[in-house]
Amino acid sequence: MADDNNNTPINHGNITPVVIQDEMKSCYLDYAMSVIVGRALPDVRDGMKPVHRRVLFAMDSLNNYHNKPFLKSARVVGDIIGKYHPHGDSAVYGAIVRLAQDFSMRYPLVDGQGNFGSIDGDNAAAMRYTEIRMKKLSEQMMADLDKETVDWQPNYDDSLVEPKVLPTKVPNLLINGSSGIAVGMATNIPPHNLSEIMNGLLALIDNSQTSIDELMKIIPGPDFPTAGAIHGTEGIRSAYHTGKGVLQIRAKMDVEHNAKKDRDSIVITELPYQVNKAKLIERIAELVNEKEITGISDLRDESSREGIRVVIDLKKGEIATVIINKLYKSTPLQTSFGIIFLSIVNGQPKVLNIKEQLLYFLDHRREIVIRRTVYELKKAKERAHILEGLKVAVDNIDEIVELVKKSEGPLQAKTKLMSNYSLSEIQAQAILDMRLQRLTGLERDKIIKDYNDIMKEIARLELILGSDEEITAIIKTECQEILENFGDKRRTEIVAKADEIHMEDLVKQEDVIVTITHKGYVKRMAMDTYRTQKRGGTGVKGADGADDDFYTSIFTANTHSTLFIFTNKGQVFSIKVYNIPEGNRTTKGRNIVNLIQMPAGEAVKKIMILPDVIEGKFLMIATEKGIVKKSELSEYKNIRQSGLTAIKIVEGDNLLSVRITDGTKDVLLCSSSGKIIRFAETDARPLGRVSQGVKGIELTEDEKIIGMEIIDDSVEILSVTSQGYGKRTSVSEYRKQSRGGKGILAMRLTEKNGEIIDIKPVTDKDDLMIISDKGQVIRTKISGISLMGRTTQGVRLIKLKEGEAVVAVEKIIDPDEEVETVVAAEGSAPAVQAAPATEAVEADDVETDAPETDEE
């Protein structure tokens, strides 16, 4: 048995041992360079990758020009993969399809007949069904290919040759752009406007020292086939100077108003480059279904051959600019385009700025013009050489005819002509090949004329080759011809700044009424929705009462205001008023949970307006258990979308009220038993945002706080009960006490007027808004309510039906009064069954003073 441990060296013969790491490194580098140079990156001169270059070359070889009949795509693909591009037919056909798509190419190079896909992402028809031919512009890329203007290389099996680069007159790299991912690098060149690029080339021809900033005045930025708008010039400037930059591209959206339905529609007419329209519509629908974007009632695609038209119908009262901004943020209606001007330069990948790319193209054109002129000069000299021989023949026609007649054969005749007339072999052969008709008088004169003309052409060509100015003039003329024949207008708009849309600049400033229900439905309404009535009126219908929902809050705000939304568990959120949907008296509104990211199990408790200046301001927060906390307002200025903790709430307690203050006034707390305590704000020191707070008032087990106000001696205190009674009392009747006391009696409570539900600091200039649990709303003037003692029962403010109760009270600030004030959502009434609105009982009751009983 053989020894398994035999260490005898094995004879490998011709096999050479190599280090596997070195071999893998070498092979991978070869593969990487093959991908970079031969597949993924375009050449800086013609802007073509090998597959695109081979497509146009094959079509040129087939005479598949713009003025010739179409050929089947399969025919052209067969030639390409059989002769030049040994890859899959689907890859080649895919390249042809893209060259024919007007939404992919700014200037399509292939004229397609049939289904070549759509902006919705639909695939093109099979190549056996479609037909193609070259565009007129693409023929300019093949011009002078037969004049030795470019180098050639063998095809993949050495049976044919193909051009290494095209002698293009068109700067295809910039006008159509390119994208590709190689090994360890990628390119992403946006398309540009041909007119602007050609004008940029002309500027550099006239002055090669033209700066990039000067070029940017001629070429302001990319120009995409799908139009849209570029927001911001910094990305363009960075890309043009360094070769790298990022653009923000937005769709074009118009707002159309339907007067019949009194609502707006957003119409999308242009898309960002490379955005799939069908997927965009799916994304918008998804956001609507997930309630991330509200206010959209319908979405449909009305696109046709005339262009893109996607219509987004809005719900009544929605502000179109707000929805547009949300669409920009959450959908591909705004996209980023990262520019990398990477291309192959002299066989190596290189990142270039805009000027370098234009100069490389001009260098290419200069080489093409020189090589074309050399070729034409060579051909002209060859023709002149032949014409010189024919001229000799014409001058000695009789002798030459006799010489040919006496010669035994063509070879002897050629030899005699060369020896007798000092002709070259080519000239002698041309004389022998000359037809008899060339011996006529006219033909002899034509030979002389052709000779003179060709000598002039030779002189012209030699002049070109001997003068850089002449070569530059030719390049300039050709650029001007391309500009005149193929130039067009810019499609993509360039907006100077890429800043976020400021809704405050787009939304009209106006005061509105905002209401919120027990179940969290919110809406905003015009200030004149409710007419002012006399005290004791029956009110107007505010909203349809549901079986288990009713109003709990009503307040005024400006459409530009920022609202703080506090939950019963001490969380705070922020929202702009214009983001709240608009409605009327009878509409239900939209649930607040659809507008903010409120945690499950929490309820909105307080809403207030954030002042423009927050320095030196405080938040005073009170809970139902009598805890108060004062914090600096600046701690709440940056509220996340998911909210912040405003106060630490202990088990069994809930946030009750929040006020903004300057720290110099007094705090007024009122309990459900009708007792009030007044103490100075300075008694409560500022605490951190997430702290618990300190005791504000002493409560019994059954008591809770129903209201907190920040007051001074300039106001009166309005007290309102659940049965619609209320009164004004001078603030001087509520003397200051130390924080944490039991308070003094604020109002005499009986079965007739019910529990006290709210207190308000008011003046004669204020109006009062009162809402019942059955949707009844009344607006009345404060001046119509009697000024009464602290311990009185009050007067009737609203007539209620049996079983109906007041759930919310809000004062309406007179818009003519220039007084800084803060309006907040107030009170949380007990849940009661709502019922259809009924007529109120006619009665006005005024109670007399009762004995005063105070507790300290």
Automatic annotation (TrEMBL):
SMART domains in the cross-refs: TOP4c
Record field: compositional bias (Low complexity): 829-840
Broadest EC class assigned to this enzyme: isomerase
Molecular function via GO: DNA topoisomerase type II (double strand cut, ATP-hydrolyzing) activity
UniProt-listed Enzyme Commission number(s): 5.6.2.2
UniProt xrefs under NCBIfam families: gyrA, PRK05560.1, PRK05561.1
Quaternary structure (record): Heterotetramer, composed of two GyrA and two GyrB chains. In the heterotetramer, GyrA contains the active site tyrosine that forms a transient covalent intermediate with DNA, while GyrB binds cofactors and catalyzes ATP hydrolysis.
Other comment: Few gyrases are as efficient as E.coli at forming negative supercoils. Not all organisms have 2 type II topoisomerases; in organisms with a single type II topoisomerase this enzyme also has to decatenate newly replicated chromosomes.
Protein name: DNA gyrase subunit A
